[in-house]
Amino acid sequence: MTFLFSAYGLRLASSQPIPGLTPVSAASSADVTVHLGSMPAGLENPSSGSPQVIFSEEGPSDAVFPTLTASLVSGGSFIHFRYVDGTEFLLDRAGTRVWAVWREPLTLEDTVTYLLGPVMAFVLRLRGIVCLHASAVAVEDRALALLGPGGAGKSTTAAVFARLGYAVLADDALAVLERGDSFLAQPAYPRVRLWPESVRALYGSDEALPLLTPNWEKRYLTLDENQESFQPDPLPLAAIYILDERSEQAAEPAIETVAPQAALVSLITNSYVNYLLDKTMRSQEFDFLGRLVNRVPVRRVLPLAGPEHLPGLCRVIAEDFRSLVRAAHAPQGA
Question: pTM for this one?
Answer without folding.
Answer: 0.93
